Amino acid sequence: MLATVRRSGAAWTRALLLQLLLAGPGGCLSRQELFPFGPEHGDLELEAGDDLVSPALELSTALHFFDRSDIDSVYVTTNGIIAMSEPPAKETHPGPFPPTFGAVAPFLADLDTTDGLGKVYYREDLSPSVTQLAAECVQRGFPEVSFKPSSAVVVTWESVAPYQGPSKDPTLEGKRNTFQSILASSDSSTYAIFLYPEDGLQFYTTFSKKEENQVPAVVAFSQGLVGLIWKSDGAYNIFANDKESIGNLAKSSNSGLQGIWVFEIGSPATASGVVPADVNLGLDDGTEYDDEDYDSVTRVGLEDAVTTSFPYEAPGRGDSGTYNTPSDLSPRRMATERPLTPPTEKTRSFQLPGERFPQQQPQVIDVDEVEETEIVFRYNTDSRQTCANNRHQCSVHAECRDFATGFCCRCVAGYTGNGRQCVAEGSPQRVNGKVKGRIFVGDSQVPIVFENTDLHSYVVMNHGRSYTAISTIPETVGYSLLPLAPIGGIIGWMFAVEQDGFKNGFSITGGEFTRQAEVTFVGHRDKLIIKQQFSGIDEHGHLTIDTELEGRVPQIAFGSSVHIEPYTELYHYSRQVITSFSTREYTVTEPERHGTAPSHAHTYRWRQTITFRECLHDDSRPALPSTQQLSVDSVFVLYNQEERILRYALSNSIGPVRDGSPDALQNPCYIGSHGCDSNAACRPGPGTQFTCECSIGFRGDGRTCYDIDECSEQPSVCGNHAICNNHPGTFRCECVEGYQFSEAGTCVAAVGLRPVNHCETGLHDCDIPQRARCIYMGGSSYTCSCLPGFSGDGRACQDVDECQPSRCHPDAFCYNTPGSFTCRCKSGYQGDGFHCVPGVVEKTRCQHEREHILGTADSSRPRPPGLFVPECDEHGQYVPTQCHSSTGYCWCVDRDGREVQGTRTRSGMRPPCLSTVAPPVHYGPPVPTTVIPLPPGTHLLFAQTGKIERLPLEGSTMTKSEAKTLLHAPGKVIIGLAFDCVDKMVYWTDISQPSIGRASLHGGEPATIVRQDLGSPEGIALDHLGRNIFWTDSQLDRIEVAKLDGTQRRVLFETDLVNPRGIVTDSVRGNLYWTDWNRDNPKIETSYMDGTNRRILVQDDLGLPNGLTFDAYSSQLCWVDAGAHRAECLKPGQSSRRKVLEGLQYPFAVTSFGKNLYYTDWKTNSVVAVDLAVSKETDSFHPHKQTRLYGITSALSQCPEGHNYCSVNNGGCTHLCLATPGSRTCRCPDNTLGVDCIERK
């Protein structure tokens, strides 16, 4: 019988392969072209009925699914699912996706086979004919993959009916669906093949028993719940979940063959999500297309284009209905894909040869927004631009409406915006971005250049007031930018208070627009160009902006103040373009000299153009007034020289043109109908009269302006030894070689000018010294070369995996490290890894103890129930957490196996024990222990055993691709981290050889500052104002303080402490906070920094409080609890606590920056980001080395504002200055000899 099945299968396969391989894109899949199925092919048949599940189908070849490779049985359901484990009884009928179990769903719906209404067949097939056919299907979908399956799970739903519920729908009467799923597996991967024959899908919805109405079917994959103890939703992918997409499954494809869909579901590439094939219909039939093939394609408008922007790291682990999307899901560029002109970030047009395949619709991948935070992938197989397949382009706070020519989005009541972007009315808004500039100041011939400068703005919408701060602006240009309040004024326009019938910028543009402005200073030849790109709302709910400044501004003396009178500005609207023109006056008051403060009035002319996208399909939407007036008052501008921060504040309202003002005359200059040249200013006259005046640097009648070539007309304008370069509206001078600008602005001979050795000065573009070296070639030239162990051009060097060509002994393991590698002999061998010989390794104390206990028990009889056997790690050392197998109690032990008092926990809870034994250092090429200099910006620093890593932050987003090792510290177990924002130093505690160390982030060797009289130093904190460090010692049960160099130590507390760990400071207020995870009495305590006013801050409802952080900007104290599995916050002066997030796995340490908490987790070996505003985990970072993570801290680019009484001159103290709220205390170090120390309050 089996032979017969195989022969018939082989014949069928040959026939079908021939048909499939010759099928053109217009050919639909017939039922006869499905994989062979039925009892005659060895199929099992699922019992007839509703919501049934098959017995386990045991597999001879394990199936790979997401990150698993050990699935040896599957379950088949009536409702279109292949389950990786037996579905719970409550989930046998369809419910919300994803389910709690792993699932492959080719057509998830409430299906019914009662009374013979269809059949469900299933089997595992090992025959070469079927596996060969599966391989061919996969090869079509993934041409670059060589896949040879050894088995295939074949499941067929034949003529199954929809469940109709109590009130049957007559339109579904007699409708039947037939479809098939193949799970083909090799030793290393598994692929899913879905087959939908022509006329195989006759219904797309079924009656939901939960929602009691018709709901669409779903095509999807789900990993199910993940986690050993604390369960959370794993990854999942939804590829179709609406009627249009389901209806086109049989008509389209992602594998090039109509009705056949292929997905990679189990391999190293699918750990975080399924990878779909991306082969378009008919693209690989050998036909070449000419440009004429595209002539019949109709270009779609911006509102019709399909969104294809992909959030490759979607939020977040543990969130309901979310998953991490791998970059492999990024759609590969199709051969016939050509972008719109101009291309946009969020849109692209797919242009298939319309006359060649008229029945086919272009296939794209959509991104759906679901409930604000969920992001799922969906195949959209219909090109019609309606709300049905474009709802995701609207905000979650908007409704989508279809019109004759397309769709539009409109914010719902209570929200404002353009429909694509909506924010709650009256809610404060934040705007973040970057600023770069190249600005000449006064007569200087050398520009001031700055890049990657932060811009932050806060808007009080109810008052229309915006506050904008631009940081790290050089003082050489900072004061001269004070008059340019409109740099931040655009944000005021966006959120101006709206008068009835008038719209502010956000209501019109949704914060998605481009702005170009030109500022011309009257009486000067100075002009500044401002370019700004607003990109809408990011994943954190903040508007994003990029600003570029270029040109020349008049010089304003250091220390001057600028006053700008209230002003009005007209905004003129035409289709998708806004223009405005105005003249502004400002007064500069210079610093007081000889008892007087000179002041001068100045004027500049302002012109700007704003371009944006608007929905043109909704003719019923009220037209905007052609002209609106922005009124601005309470203008405040300030440059803080110490902080190098430029600040603008303005109050804004938008409304009609006011009667009695010049604007009311509707002069052509105001309404934009003047016809002046783009390089001319319109000068209003009486009534409707006006004149056009070419801008400085241009010549003409105003309606036509030509650039003046100053270099030709004034050949000597730059003077001797200089070259003149003409630019539109201006010119620039450059000194010839051997000359440089003097203070007078003329070119003079460069005295003693010598070739520059860029390698010595460090002004080269070679990679960092840990990866490359700079080689001086003479003159001013150099070359870059990668160091041994790295490859590249010297400017970018990559680590070479030396373990690929194994350099270690055959009886040794090879471990690749940055720029090097290490070797270690295998168990049972001795040596340095390069030479290994058989030998018996001397047993450790833990191994001896185990053997002694186990040897006393008779191996022929069961072990006595009360017997405790210690657990040893792979190196033979005591595992830091020991548990009794009978009682379930766990406790911490030291390196000699002795129990650490106060750590024993009840059954079911594991204490957060630390290993005091560093892993062995293996022989091999040395790893540099110098600090790799930290780039500019804010970074997270976190500790792993033997090293500290850095993770850059872009805003509050972790830039995971830029994560690198900051410091290698082999032989250490680094626990706590603290950062000094003043000297840019990182401090740490090491419990292997108890010590406290530090290192400069500018580079160099680390240093140990405390090494005596330490037990187990764990938490460490720093007062950057008083210049002190504080640390906890869980073995000596005390808290100490010292100066930053480790001198002048003083014990603050040594009573009522059992397991002190986390510790933080509030430098401005002079407070200290710490955790004690004593199992009998866990608590969070506080005191002043001098040790007075000690008291318990939190004591109730704590489990194992580990990490602690204090945010100086919000004055919030937050902690993570490994016993209660949650993060909490409070303001120390208030009694109420806020549970930020529950369900954490095993948090250890925590830090804060901006709106986020970042904590390290022992269960997942990752850094996790938590958004405090929405109480959700938004991202996670898994280091390449999967070992336990310990301390974490924020390395801020600049210190928080504020001071305490120890900030200046050490508070007048001779030794330790310890801040207190509103004062300070002078203390002497312990064991002080002599009388040179004075204690006082």
TrEMBL record:
Which positions fall inside the EGF-like domain? 665-706, 707-745, 755-798, 799-835
Fetch the InterPro entries from UniProt.
6-blade_b-propeller_TolB-like (IPR011042), cEGF (IPR026823), Cueball_EGF_LRP_Nidogen (IPR050778), EGF (IPR000742), EGF-like_Ca-bd_dom (IPR001881), EGF-type_Asp/Asn_hydroxyl_site (IPR000152), EGF_Ca-bd_CS (IPR018097), G2_nidogen/fibulin_G2F (IPR006605)
Q: What residue ranges are annotated as transmembrane? A: none
Which residue numbers delimit the Nidogen G2 beta-barrel domain? 427-664
User: Where is the region Disordered?
Assistant: 309-350
Domain Thyroglobulin type-1 positions: 843-913
Q: Tell me which domain of life the UniProt entry assigns to the organism this sequence originates from.
A: Eukaryota
UniProt-annotated location(s): Secreted, Extracellular space, Extracellular matrix, Basement membrane
Any Pfam family from its record, for instance, is Ldl_recept_b
Coiled-coil boundaries? none
**What's a GO cellular component annotated to this UniProt protein?**
plasma membrane
- Disulfide feature: 883-890
Keyword terms, alphabetized: Basement membrane, Calcium, Cell adhesion, Disulfide bond, EGF-like domain, Extracellular matrix, Glycoprotein, Repeat, Secreted, Signal, Sulfation
Chief location:
secreted
In this chain the LDL-receptor class B repeats are located at: 984-1026, 1027-1069, 1070-1114
Keyword flag Nuclease: no
Subunit structure, as described in the record: Interacts with FBLN1. Interacts with LGALS3BP. Interacts with PLXDC1. Interacts with SVEP1.
The task this protein performs is described as: Sulfated glycoprotein widely distributed in basement membranes and tightly associated with laminin. Also binds to collagen IV and perlecan. It probably has a role in cell-extracellular matrix interactions.
Question: Which protein, by its recorded name, is this?
Answer: Nidogen-1
Q: Which organism is it from?
A: Bos mutus grunniens
Gene name tied to this protein: NID1
